[in-house]
Amino acid sequence: MRAVVVRVEMKNNNPLIILSRSTPLFLHRLFELEVPEIFDGLITIKNIVRIPGERAKVAVESYDERIDPVGACVGMKGSRIHGIVRELRNENIDVINFTNNLQLFIQRSLSPAKISSIRLNEEDQRAEVFLKPEEVSLAIGKGGLNIKLASMLTGYEIDVFRDVIEDDDEDIDLEEFADEIEGWILDELKAIGCDTAKSVLEILPQDLLKRTDLEEETIRDVMKILSSEFE
User: Fold this and answer.
1) Phi first, then psi: what are they for 40, rounded to 5°?
2) Given phi > 0 = left and psi -120 to 50 = alpha, else beta, which region is 159?
3) How far apart (Å, rounded) are the C-alpha atoms in residues 69 and 38?
4) Is 148's pLDDT higher than 70?
5) Taking all residues of the chain, what is their mean pLDDT, rounded to a whole number?
6) How many angstroms separate the CA atoms of 46 and 231, rounded?
7) Rounded mean pLDDT of 225-229?
8) How confident is the model at residue 168 (pLDDT cuts 50, 70, 90)?
9) What are the strands, taking DSSP E only, across the chain?
10) Are 131 and 115 in contact (CB under 8 A)?
11) pTM value?
12) Which CATH number fits domain 22-98: 3.40.630.30, 3.20.20.140, 3.40.50.300, 3.30.300.20?
């Protein structure tokens, strides 16, 4: 069993050694073992964020222009990353090329979703990300993991919005449902980046349940009201 020693405590004059497999440091050490370029200092891990057992994102940077940091970490046909994934019991790992260009870094952190545009608020450290409808669920990820980890990795609170440039005449703003849906419910949906009917309908009910404070019955009622407008 592999683990890292996170601390050593003395209890009743006996040393107590605390081990961990869930800390980002453990994943950092696994990369050092599997990727010689990291161990030798040619590639640096800039940041690691994890939800242990579910998913992780690792930002890497190379000091040698001839070395592709992501390719080196993944290995030929995934040989290096697969060893780490097996050790972590199939935890999904996204390896991202670090950049000081914040917009590009946020874009990469939300992979595999393709971003249409990004609007930054550096003072509040928030990013409004606009995507095509089919990309919204990819950006959010299963159970909201992708967007949560992207926020942790970049240090910016990320709000996802549907790109309204296309098919604008075929969608309906949530405010149009104010007579049928209570205001606090609409506010909950807007807080996760849903400002139109279709942007809500594109998210699975179980994901809405995890990402909002709404109850399952409330979500079902909202979905029914919104979907009826497109029937």
Assistant:
1) -85, -5
2) beta
3) 9
4) yes
5) 90
6) 49
7) 87
8) very low
9) 4-11, 14-20, 43-51, 55-62, 92-97, 115-121, 126-131, 157-162
10) yes
11) 0.68
12) 3.30.300.20
